[in-house]
Design a protein that fits this description.
Blueprint lengths: L30 H5 L4 E9 L9 E11 L4 E12 L9 E17 L2 E16 L6 E15 L4 E12 L4 E10 L2
Antiparallel strand pairs: 1-2, 2-3, 3-4, 4-5, 5-6, 6-7, 7-8
Length: about 180
């Protein structure tokens, strides 16, 4: 046994190579793809301007929760509420609320630009002081849109909403700017 040192790093003709002190490049989601994730919680201000000029605009708040399912699919649920002074058509004002649940898919054109489409259902309720003006209605909707990560923290978004119901049809254009926190 003299001359054989099994604890030394050089035995059996093998010499270990030094480990590089430069870290390997990170391969995984960048902050821009994380920004365009489909798992989110958002709160928002809502301004609604009605086609009927006899109705005053409504101002309100909403919350939305999204969850990435698998692949390009996602699930989204939301609640929003708005209130209006009414205008000539509804002098005493009204409150407008809606809940929705939908499923969608997205196609990443680039890491920073996605095309998406969501389909689902919603339940809408309008409460006015005069009960003859109040209603509730279920609807189906389709919402195509675009998402763009302008920077690693800023997302710009545009959507169209097409909704069909018995008493209340709508076509709405939505724009948004989101800051990644």
């Amino acid at each position: 046994g003299a001359g054989m040192n099994y604890g030394a790093p050089n035995y059996g003709g093998y010499t270990p190579q030094p480990v590089s002190s430069t870290p390997a490049p990170y391969i995984g989601p960048t902050s821009s793809t994380a920004l365009l994730s489909y798992g989110f919680l958002e709160g928002f201000y809502q301004y609604t301007d009605f086609d009927n000029s006899n109705l005053d605009p409504a101002h309100g708040l909403g919350i939305s929760l999204g969850a990435q399912l698998f692949g390009p699919l996602f699930l989204r649920g939301g609640f929003n509420w708005a209130s209006s002074k009414g205008g000539p058509a509804i002098a005493d004002g009204f409150d407008f609320s809606a809940v929705s649940l939908g499923v969608g898919g997205h196609i990443p054109i680039t890491q920073r630009f996605h095309v998406l489409c969501e389909v689902g259902g919603s339940y809408t309720k309008l409460d006015a002081k005069r009960s003859s003006l109040s209603f509730s209605d279920g609807a189906l909707y389709v919402r195509p849109g675009l998402r763009f990560a302008a920077t690693n923290n800023l997302e710009l978004q545009g959507t169209l909403l097409f909704s069909s119901a018995d008493d209340y049809d709508q076509m709405a254009f939505g724009v948004g700017a989101f800051w990644n926190m």
